[in-house]
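My main concern about presentation is that the manuscript never shows what a single data entry looks like. For the editor and my fellow referees, an illustration may be useful. For illustration, here is how one protein appears when written out as sequence plus structure tokens:

***
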Amino acid sequence: MISNPLMPNLKKVFWIHFTRVIAVGFMIALLVYFVSFFIDFSIFLLPFDVLDIELDISAIKIIWIFCLVVFFMALSMGFVNYIYLKNTKYTFYNNRMVISKRSHFKEIFYKNISRILYDQKKLFDVLFNSRSIILELTGLKDKTIKLEFIDNADKVLDYIQNLIEINEKLEYSKINVSKKIEYPRINVNKKVKNTLAKK
């Protein structure tokens, strides 16, 4: 069952961004550790020696400092994206959907959606079972709209596609009904002629 309004999974928003930064930081730290076997990092302390400042910093200490910095950066990225998407909602109606982000609202009629597709699959999307859905638009200023960090994106995509198809059928049936309604044409001249002839 698809919830309406639909919202990004905020816990996953936080953890996806947090994990991305940690993963990048870990790879850099690992690279620095291996490079330390070939390069003596003490050469970077030469400017301090010139100023008679003694610093005893090993490669391990540098890595630990770097890891702490990365950890706090990861926390920051997680919280920033959490707050950014906190008030995001996607509400679906019979003939349109409304996207609300904080104090901004955007109304999109289903007839303006030309195509629905998934965002490119990434490693963290697979790990957290969360993807973004892209709506390609026509007849509007914006050419695409992205529904971000959606759980069970395949079911949501089918749900939106179904709403679009139902709306198309309703619009088509309205056109057909209006075409079928034909009013009888009265030939006024003929009636007038018959009346005059009787007189």
